[in-house]
Amino acid sequence: MSDLASTLLAFSPDPQLEPSEYDKNVKKFSATVKKFSSREWVKSAESGSLLEALDPALNSVSLLLTLYTLAQNQGDSGLRPRSVNQVSDAWRPRAVLWNKTEQLLSSFDPISIRYFGQQWRELIEFIGLVASILRQPAMALIPIRTAILRLDPSGGTLTTTHVVFMQLCMESTAYAQAVPLLDCIIHSFPPNASQGGEQGLLCADHGLSNGYITVKSGLSEKIRTADVQEYFLLGAMAFLGLGKYDEAQALLEHVLVTPTSNTANGLMLEAYKKYVLAGALASGQRPPIPKTANGNAMRTIRSASKAYEQLTEVLHDLNLPRLLAEIEAGLSLWSEDGNFGLVQKLVENYPRFLLYKLQRTYASIPLDELSGLLNKGDEELEMYLSTLIKEGQVNASIERSIKTQQRVLKFYSDESMGPKAKSEQQQYKELVACATRTESLTEQTRAADHRINLTKEFIEVEKKNRMKAAQAASGEEAMDTSWDVHKDGMDEDVMGDA
Amino acid sequence: MTSAVDVEDSPFFQEKLASGGLVVRDLPKFDLDSYIQHYDDRTRFDRLMLIGTTSTVLSLDALRLAVQQAERGKDVEAYLTATSALSQVAPNDPAGQVDQKLVDHKLKVIKAESERLEKELKGYRNNLIKESIRMGNEDLGRHYYSTGELAESWKAYQRMRDYCTNANNIVDMLFRLILVGIQQKQWQSVMSQLIKANSSGQKSDSRTEHEPIIKALMGLCSMEMGNFRQAAKEFMVTKFAYGNLENQGQIAWQKEVLTQNDIAVYGGLCALASMDREELREKVLNNPEFRQYLELEPHIRRAISLFCSSKYSACLEQLDAYRTDYLLDVYLNPVLRMLYGTIRSKCIVQYFIPFECVTLEEMTNAFQSTGEGKIETELVEMIEKGVLKARIDLVEGLLIAPKTNSRHAVQEDAIKAAKAYENTLRLRLLQLNMKAAGLEIKSSKQQGGTASAPSWEGEDSEMGGTRRGGRRGIFS
């Protein structure tokens, strides 16, 4: 066995070590393996048993580096294959190296791997790329998601890997795979570097995952505004694909509240269009404008999405012929925006909206009458209704009237009765769950607040404020400044007139 | 002699029916001659025209009276409208033929008069005597008012403003403007003049004489604007002395705009439409001033009493009996549908309050006789509008009051509030984080001035284009 192989096999840091010791250990290893050229590496990997010998859980780092080097040297273009031919056979899904990578991603040691963030990230990006090139994007979904959540169980520091994963989800249309990740609350973004001192060591126990997921560690690239927006937009589209309109609406709201100096970007516009449709699909009417969104930006966006708002207005009136005409009129617009499918869903869900309205007006209604209103045959109607009831979309039940022996749909006025009824215990549970989530959010908000307190800008403003306060206390200084401002204004005016 | 049947078949009414206009076929309870003698001047003509063009039964009589009045008056336009309407209703009626000679003569006289008054005014202006200028404008305004040039009249009265020397003058001028405004049906502007008159009137000596008129007119105005509650309030405080007031602003308001009977009817209906039983008893029936008005229109008083004693269907029947009369009233006509509709839905709501559920049959018995369509559709409409809080059981034929499980509802509300809070917190956290990380969309127009993000490298180009290269000011 070569030097390299024995070094690799020997390295398995003990998690019991003090952070500083641990840190030293890993760094020493890193320096040692850097001496080996990639040729040597490939040779020893190919020579046989090295890959077999490395345990994904114990020798995570060694295995990662080996796989990374192999990927770098595969085919003609290494980590960036552009076509099927540029992916060597061993890397294809279910082939040797692919399987090894999958094993690694599902069982790596999340601490030591932090020291090789760039390799970790690029290897993930590589298998994502391979899956996408080979038109099997679904193959990479679970490995990548597992890896993200293994590195950061909260999944809350938004990394570029998150975005890559969401893109693959869209490509594969396996929307359900996105849900576990989307359920994680994004609580922070990777900072440029971690803080100094003992706490700054990558292996230390960080309260929040953004302590070690930094740009410097290579675990994520620098996040841009568009990345954040894209992640939420794609996530919302996944929910839309699953028919979970409420959740989709909530994520789209995240895009709409992007901080902005009175302007909007294309992603926000796209998000707003989908937001309107998602809201309409959820409740049958146009959703409210998010309170925390920038007013000017929203105005710009809304004026560019009149057609969508118009559509929801027509839907609200529950006038099917007009709805159809409106859809027909905007046909090219919907398909250009890629929203035609959603618009069609409006028509598909039309009977549901009608039922919502009937529910407000009627306590019970014979099925005969209903079949006329919803324009469905008897059997079709009953099927349709029982699906809706089963899915919990309407709180109602189909019964037989004692008096007339007719089949009857009975609506329940609130959720204390009927199939959707909730017991007090259930309500309590829901409330407690909500409170717990809010509490953890508060914790994260506090952390964010703390971060802000440490930014240069904050300190500068704070300094200025203190100076002002001091000036105000001494009195004379303050007088001077106000005089200066006044004089400046005068000067400018004089010039302007001349 | 043309009979009522012929009138109904006349091209005029056929056309009106075809275009969806309102045509009344029933005989009203009033007698045209004695009804119209309470009115004078333009409102008399307007009322006659409305009756003539709406009621098939009274059309001929009303239009003939209108033509007669117009022949005597100075308003050529009015004369032509009246004759044209009459000739359409009854082509053979001699009164419907335009007397061209009369028209020409009138036009000549009017023109001479206008020129004379304008010239006089010019003279006053040259002399710079305020009072004369004011009176000159007043004469001109009155002249234009009588010839039907309302816009000109308004302008002339407006011009008086600069020459008013005391509060009485101002109120006088405002009253004239108000009359013109009422004729033009510019209720918004009438209202604002009324408010001015009310505040200026406080300083004037004849405040007590102004007040009832202002209150009554405010009531009228509010009613025409669809604000029945406000209208009722104003009518309720109108002193009964209104009927015996001397002319204000040289206008006989009791004849030219509102009679005491009108106040009783308008006030009563508006109160019915906007007040609950308690208020009606307290502020209307037991109101010493307004009770005197109600003596004049006993059926209105009866309707209100019926409503107060929860006999809703009888109340509606009572009102329905007078529907024809009110449709022929110049001020009630445009708002009657809304007024009656409001009263009716109030009756239904009040009727339903004590019950947990009522059969639709019973509702039909109680309200069908006075309604237009099926009671069920009406109820559905009311529920959808949120006026009636109930749901319909089509199977058992019941109207059911909502059962609320308040314990459950409170829990649900708590969950909802908690979720909303969570969502807001989430969004705020995201915003906070994005701002802290410098992830902000910058306007392309902005020059990277303000306290900006730590670093901008690698920022996307999709949104801003020229983030850094904003155009600098020319003078910098």
TrEMBL record, chain A:
Residues 472-498 are annotated as: Disordered. InterPro entries: COP9_N (IPR055089), CSN3 (IPR050756), PCI_dom (IPR000717). Belongs to the CSN3 family. Transmembrane segments: none annotated. It is found in: Cytoplasm; Nucleus. The keyword Metal-binding does not apply. Residues 247-412 form the PCI domain. Pfam families: COP9_hel_rpt, PCI. The keyword Nucleus applies. This is COP9 signalosome complex subunit 3. GO terms for cellular component: COP9 signalosome; cytoplasm. GO terms for biological process: ubiquitin-dependent protein catabolic process. It comes from the Eukaryota. Keywords: Cytoplasm, Nucleus, Signalosome.
Automatic annotation (TrEMBL), chain B:
Residues 443-476 are annotated as: Disordered. One of its GO terms (cellular component) is COP9 signalosome. It is found in: Cytoplasm; Nucleus. The keyword Nucleus applies. Keywords: Coiled coil, Cytoplasm, Nucleus, Signalosome. Residues 444-453 have a biased composition (Polar residues). Its main location: cytoplasm. InterPro entries: PCI_dom (IPR000717), Rpn7/CSN1 (IPR019585), Rpn7_N (IPR045135), WH_DNA-bd_sf (IPR036390). SMART domains: PINT. Residues 227-406 form the PCI domain. It holds the Pfam family RPN7. It comes from the Eukaryota. Residues 107-134 form a coiled coil. Belongs to the CSN1 family. PANTHER family: 26S PROTESOME SUBUNIT 6, COP9 SIGNALOSOME COMPLEX SUBUNIT 1. This is PCI-domain-containing protein. It comes from Pseudovirgaria hyperparasitica. The lineage of its organism: Eukaryota, Fungi, Dikarya, Ascomycota, Pezizomycotina.
